[in-house]
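A brief tutorial aside. Many learners find it easier to grasp structure tokens once they have seen a single protein encoded end to end. The record that follows does exactly this for PilZ domain-containing protein. Read the sequence first, then the structure, and try to relate runs of similar tokens to stretches of the chain.
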Amino acid sequence: MNEQRRAPRKRPNYVVTVTDALTGQSLGHVGNLSSNGMLLISQHSPRSEAVYQVCLPLPTRDGNMPTIEVGIQEQWHEPAATPGQIWSGFRIIAIGSNDAAQLERWLHQP
């Protein structure tokens, strides 16, 4: 598989649940995250090229847990090595300036 990432990705050290902003349902959890995409680990395959508006909590250095909201589009998905899990690659296609700044701060935390 060719490496197509445009930005370095960071693995969270806690479970980051990704929630559909429209339905409130959990879509899965973040495997890794960058300024322009994420790996989502879930139990169900997304539709090919589907677009979702999602919310995810990203902690700040002071211990707060604000939630950012982003628009994402499915790029690929495949069964994971763990039975019952699906790995899906998403590209961030929409993010507000405040949420983008929060994401950048989180990405640069140790």
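Self-check: The domain at 17-107 is CATH 2.40.10.220 (Thrombin, subunit H). If you spotted this yourself, you are ready for the next section.
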